[in-house]
Amino acid sequence: MKLLEDRILKDGIVREGNVLKVDSFVNHQIDVDFIAELAKEFKRLYEGEEITKILTIEASGIGIACIVAQEFHVPVLFAKKNKTINIANDVYTSKVESFTHKRSYDIIVSKDFLKPEDKVLIIDDFLAMGSAMQGLISLIRDAGATIVGAGIIIEKAYQQGGQMIRDMGVRVESLARIKSMDNNTIEFIH
């Protein structure tokens, strides 16, 4: 999506370790009007699919998922990274390793909100190594729900995650696919 690629080139910052910072408009400070345009593209890509729920992972996916959910007129469910006293013991759980935070954690979703009859679209800001996505897929499958697909804002296509998730039979639609990047350049796959 050219709109997104142009914004990444304008405002994205490549840091050491192949970390792309888009926190000025995607996942720390959110440019809501811009994200609304991305949400319309996800709506177009998944037009005609029956979707009953949007699923994401806390925290940076929540804002984006909410805007996408408005397009589909369905609720957002987010996998929590920490169990609290507000969530009963009846949960689906999966282990996730964070590339960015360099640690692993359990994600949980209450069984009250993810049911076998749900048709779920996963929305997230990044897809790189695929661990978070695998965790979300595991939660959906444990619930007996249907995975409609995954909508990703930015895929680091030079890492294994995207292909791994596609090899699992999950439809992945990424709005920007990065072929390579370094401190001076970002190259996209078209």
UniProtKB/TrEMBL annotation:
Annotated Phosphoribosyltransferase domain residues: 23-158
Alphabetized, the UniProt keywords read: Cytoplasm, Glycosyltransferase, Purine salvage, Transferase
Residue positions annotated to bind xanthine are: 20, 27, 156
Q: Name one Pfam family in it.
A: Pribosyltran
- InterPro entries of this UniProt entry? PRTase-like (IPR029057), PRTase_dom (IPR000836), Pur/Pyrimidine_PRTase (IPR050118), Xanthine_PRibTrfase (IPR010079)
Q: Which GO terms describe its molecular function?
A: xanthine phosphoribosyltransferase activity
Look up the EC number in the record and give it: 2.4.2.22
Q: Where this protein primarily resides, as one coarse class?
A: cytoplasm
The annotated pathway is: Purine metabolism; XMP biosynthesis via salvage pathway; XMP from xanthine: step 1/1
Query: What processes in GO biological process is this protein linked to?
Result: purine ribonucleoside salvage; xanthine metabolic process; XMP salvage
Q: Does the keyword Glycosyltransferase apply?
A: yes
Binding positions (5-phospho-alpha-D-ribose 1-diphosphate): 128-132
**What Gene Ontology terms describe where this protein resides (cellular component)?**
cytoplasm
Which reaction(s) does its UniProt entry say it catalyses?
XMP + diphosphate = xanthine + 5-phospho-alpha-D-ribose 1-diphosphate
Tell me the compartments it is located in.
Cytoplasm
Give the quaternary structure.
Homodimer.
General function of this protein? Converts the preformed base xanthine, a product of nucleic acid breakdown, to xanthosine 5'-monophosphate (XMP), so it can be reused for RNA or DNA synthesis.
HAMAP family membership: XPRTase
Q: Hey, which family's this protein in? A: Belongs to the purine/pyrimidine phosphoribosyltransferase family. Xpt subfamily.
Name this polypeptide is given: Xanthine phosphoribosyltransferase
**Originating species:** Ruminococcus difficilis
Gene name, per UniProt, is: xpt
